Amino acid sequence: MTTIKAFARVLTCFTLAACVPTYTLVSPGRVAVSKGAMVVEPKSAWNRVPNGPQTIPRQENWTHNGPLLESITFIGGLVPGEAIAKQKAKDDRQVPPFRADMTPQDLVSMIESYYRIRVGAAVYETTDVRPVVFLGQPAVQVDFSYVVADEVKRLGRSKLAIIDGKLFAMSLDGTALHYFADALPEFEEIVASAARR
Amino acid sequence: MAGFLRRRDVLTQGLCGCGLVVAGWPASARVNPMSLAPLVHPGYVPADADERGLWQQCEEFEYELASSNLLLQDPTVQSYVHAITNRLLGERDFGIRTYVVRDAEFNASMFPNGMMLVHTGLLARMRNEAQLAAVLGHECGHYLRRHSLERHRDLKRKSAAAAIVGLAAAGATGATGSNWFDLANSINTMLVLSVYTFSRGQESEADAYGLKLLAECGYMPGAAAAVWAQIIAERKASAVARKKRYRDHSASEYSTHPPSQERMEDLAASADDIASRVHDSREFEDRRAEWLALAAPIRFSLLEEQIKLNDPGASLYLLESLAVDGWTGTLRFFEGEAYRLRGGVDDVARATAAYLAAVAFTDAPPEAWRAHGYAQIQSGHADDGRRALAHYLELKPDAVDAAMVRFTLVQ
After folding, report:
1. Are B1 and A101 an interchain contact pair (Cβ–Cβ within 8 Å)?
2. Around Cβ B19, how many Cβ atoms within 10 Å?
3. Core vs surface per residue A90-101: b (16+ CB within 10 A) or e
4. Closest residue of A to B306, CA-based?
5. Is B403 in contact with A130 (Cβ distance < 8 A)?
6. Could you tell me if A72 and A187 are in contact, meaning their C-beta atoms sit under 8 angstroms apart?
7. Which of A33, B119, B317, B397 has CB 3.0 to 4.6 Å from B103, enough for a Cys bridge?
8. pLDDT, tens digit, for every residue of B394-408?
């Protein structure tokens, strides 16, 4: 009886441990992201952030020092009607869903709405919007700054391309003090290495 | 994350907010505004250890707020709001300080030490100075009647009582099963309920006090009820747009505020009483012109905060309520933005029409020309669209998206 109880306790521990979301290592080298929608080649090791209740299926997040300090987000192959945030039809405030005919200003305001609604940015400012090449296609680069309830100023850069009617995006987000600038060169290298699968 | 809101949470026990979930409480008599007198005096200092502790927490928060990224960096607006508070209090210097903070929610809050936070979301919804004064007067009422301290002590007393009931129940469990827990839970529920009921009474008293201050310095007393009428209508519009039933969260037994409809009706009735008692030739004023002059330079950013939240029912109601004083290029532009973000059937056409209407105004913001340009290109009028985008660049050559717009022009 004692053996069975001990075994049950061990089994329970393993089951609980299996349920707890854990960070996983992303080694340098070619790696598929966003459920295989894109392939990138980081030059350093990153931590893959476990999916939370707000993570959409086509999303993947990496960090070096923790998501509050800096993170890279990949979204691959979002189809029209889907949003870059998980939300319900009856939510009062909703991030505009993706449309294949979105103009640059639509993409810029989609990012702003995401930060204001889902991240809780009380202060948000778009600081630069310019054309770039991403995944070998014409794309939009959006730079922004924002402040949430912790009062820390953060910076962000998003690269967004609409390819074959689907949205592909990569974003870097980090504190204005040190972490964003520190991660930016490697973010750009990862962007440059990105390819669709 | 020991930031702004977290610190505010720490202070919640002693904080009184006007909040959206406000107004109306069951079986309550309307408070006579003229029966209320201040419980503090100019130069007031904390009277005992309880109050000193509360003030100390608030002072630390206030010190950090002065350098916060969330503080609105606009000395003109900060001074204007503070001047209204001073006008409400007249010759009496109670040492109340106001701080306008960036937050799109309709709210203002008073701390125990006389520090008042005013959200930009509140400013976005005001149609005249009297409406703003009504909310500021309400918050002053909390301070002058020492509601924070009263509430803090009440919570402390009831928290202790709840702990004793819980302890007794835990000791008795072995002998009597779980019924004691059920009993303890029901008693605690009653205590919690009474805690919130207590606060609801304070809200009504603060409403009445605010009305008294409003009338004493010549603002239209009806402005207070008008604010609540607008807020209720906005919440209903928001619910309808998302195909939901409107629920007044403040009508719940657990709400800290009286139900909105009841609050509005009480304020309107008291305003009528006050107006009928004024026998001199004095006329109440709403100081709309002063407010519009102040709001004009910041209206774009105030509305942008709200519109980008993509709550189309609330946004469109807000724009229409402001347009009662006349449509402007800025209002039409944001109407187009609300439709564009909503993205429903026919919204592209609605947005296109709104942008077209916006650029017909001489005060249209440059962004209206950009939006008009993209809308025209999308609707097949590429030449018109390019002309509009080029005009946007003429108006705002250093725009943050100038490179992107130039790229669009050569496509």
Report:
1. no
2. 18
3. eebbbbbbbbee
4. A116
5. yes
6. yes
7. B119
8. 999 999 999 999 999
Q: How far is B283 from chain A (nearest CA, A)?
A: 39
Mean pLDDT over residues B87-110, rounded? 89
| H or E element that contains A195 | strand A195-196
B401–A129 C-beta distance less than 8 A: yes
A126–B contact, CB cutoff 8 A = yes
The CA-atom distances, in angstroms, between B113 and each of B16, B89, B95, B300, B381 are 11, 16, 9, 33, 60
Exposure string of B294-319, with b = 16+ CB inside 10 Å and e = fewer, is bbeebbeebbbbbbbbbbbbbbbbbb
Interface with B, mutate which of A103, A107, A111, A119 (most B CBs under 10 A): A103
For residue B336, the chain A residues in CB contact (below 8 A) are none
Phi/psi for B29 (5° steps) reads: -80, 145
Residue B20 pLDDT > 60: no
What does the pLDDT read at residue A147? Answer: 95
Encoded tokens for B127: 């149609």
pTM for the structure as a whole: 0.84
Residue B55 has pLDDT above 90, yes or no: no
Of the candidates B116, B114, B118, B115, the one whose C-alpha atom is nearest the C-alpha of residue B102 is B118
Domain boundaries along the sequence of chain A: 23-196
Q: What is the dihedral of CA B152, B158, B162, B164, to 10 degrees?
A: 110
Which tens digit of pLDDT belongs to each residue from B234-267? 999 999 998 888 776 665 555 566 667 777 787 7
Q: Which structure tokens are listed for A74? A: 């990949």
Which structure tokens are listed for A88?
A: 């319900």
| Contact call for residues B116 and B97 (beta carbons, < 8 A) | yes
Distance from CA of A107 to the nearest CA of B (A): 11
Is the distance from CB of B124 to CB of B306 less than 8 angstroms? yes
Report the percentage of chain A scoring pLDDT > 90: 83
Cβ contacts of residue B117 below 8 Å, gap of 6+?
B98, B99, B101, B107, B108, B109, B111
Residues in chain A: 197
DSSP states along B20-80:
SS----TT-PPP-GGG---SS-TT----SHHHHHHHHHHHHHHHHHTT-TTB---HHHHHH
Q: Note the pLDDT tens digit of each residue in B302-345.
A: 999 999 999 999 999 999 999 998 999 999 999 999 999 999 88
- CB-closest option in B239, B340, B408 to A104: B408
Distance (Å, whole) CA B223 – CA B139: 15
On the CB side of A158, CA atoms within 13 Å amount to 25
Q: How far is CA B137 from its chain centroid? A: 13
Fold for A23-196, please state it. Protein Transport Mog1p; Chain A (3.40.1000)
- B17 Cα to chain A: minimum distance (Å): 18
> Does A137 touch chain B if contact means CB atoms closer than 8 Å?
no
Please identify every stretch of chain A with a pLDDT value under 50, giving residue numbers as ranges: 1
